[in-house]
């Protein structure tokens, strides 16, 4: 029951207008328990009243932002427009948007990931095994490679913005800060969460898709330790920015295998033009096991 990226239609039922894809049925849902919250809204579990299928519903009240509601609606529209263009097994799926005039609320209906977010998972089960780190990292990279191929930078990659489905597959979510750019464009505005930001974001030269690769490295460290680089060392904003931008100050890499260390060093390449792309990193030995195979063969020969 996917929503395609084709022409949209509006279905009005009382005070609610549902924006859906042409040819798809409107989802009528019942809100259940709260499962999360964000800067502008609250996420609830919901069911389709016809099929009993689960969904997640992000409810955003407009009343608290009445003086800035037009700006907020534009931000929501931008996120939804990006979500509608994405169709990948490791990216959360978008279904429809409801405009509730009576309650002055916007609801975004998306895929339900029953195992919560990666931050909670890591907090409960760290340290993650090498195999789990491999699989999660590979699936995040597959989603990033797909997004970058469509000209989209995520700009806020971190464990709390990554969900885990019932089958334990990874689902990238929260595209509120994502940006669509041309392949040669550079973005100048600072966006994201400080500990995960790349050094080039604090220069006047701009940044591009490589910013997500640096953030991926920070996210892998977070999966290993429960915290991103520098989080346990620097607390003041000015100190964090200084640590990120100092040429000789690299993120501390926890004790790990040689192939994982090499993978992280590549993610943390200071010059973005020298940093491997998401697609290139998918072929790194950490994710293919060829690095370990070479070491094993060498030791055996000795």
UniProtKB/TrEMBL annotation:
InterPro entries: Kinase-like_dom_sf, MAP_kinase_kinase_kinase, Prot_kinase_dom, Protein_kinase_ATP_BS, Ser-Thr/Tyr_kinase_cat_dom, Ser/Thr_kinase_AS. Residues 29-287 form the Protein kinase domain. SMART domains: S_TKc (SM00220). Mg(2+) binds at residues 161, 174. It holds the Pfam family Pkinase. CDD domains: STKc_MAPKKK. ATP binds at residue 63. The active site is at 156 (proton acceptor). Keywords: ATP-binding, Kinase, Magnesium, Metal-binding, Nucleotide-binding, Serine/threonine-protein kinase, Transferase. One of its GO terms (molecular function) is ATP binding. Belongs to the protein kinase superfamily. This is Protein kinase domain-containing protein. It comes from Stentor coeruleus.
């Amino acid at each position: 029951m996917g929503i395609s990226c084709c022409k949209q239609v509006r279905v009005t039922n009382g005070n609610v207008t549902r924006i859906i894809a042409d040819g798809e049925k409107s989802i009528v849902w019942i809100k259940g328990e709260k499962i999360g919250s964000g800067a502008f809204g609250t996420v609830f579990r919901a069911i389709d009243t016809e099929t009993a299928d689960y969904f997640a519903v992000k409810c955003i009240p407009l009343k608290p932002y009445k003086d800035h509601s037009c700006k907020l609606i534009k931000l929501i529209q931008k996120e939804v427009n990006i979500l509608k263009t994405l169709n990948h097994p490791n990216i959360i799926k978008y279904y429809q948007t409801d405009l509730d005039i009576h309650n002055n609320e916007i609801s975004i209906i998306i895929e339900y990931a029953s195992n919560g977010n990666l931050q909670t998972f890591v907090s409960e089960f760290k340290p993650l095994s090498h195999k789990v780190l491999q699989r999660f990292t590979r699936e995040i990279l597959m989603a990033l490679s797909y997004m970058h191929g469509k000209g989209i930078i995520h700009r806020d990659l971190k464990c709390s913005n990554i969900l885990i489905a019932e089958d334990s597959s990874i689902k990238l979510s929260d595209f509120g800060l994502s940006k669509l750019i041309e392949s040669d464009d550079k973005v100048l505005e600072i966006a994201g969460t400080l500990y995960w930001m790349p050094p080039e974001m604090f220069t006047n030269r701009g940044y591009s898709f490589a910013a997500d690769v640096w953030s991926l490295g920070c996210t892998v460290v977070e999966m290993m330790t429960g915290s991103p680089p520098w989080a346990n060392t620097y607390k003041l904003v000015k100190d964090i920015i200084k640590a990120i931008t100092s040429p000789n100050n690299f993120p501390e890499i926890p004790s790990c295998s040689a192939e994982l260390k090499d993978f992280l060093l590549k993610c943390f390449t200071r010059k973005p033009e020298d940093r491997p792309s998401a697609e290139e990193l998918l072929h790194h030995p950490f994710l293919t096991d060829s690095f370990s195979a070479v070491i094993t063969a060498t030791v055996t020969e000795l």
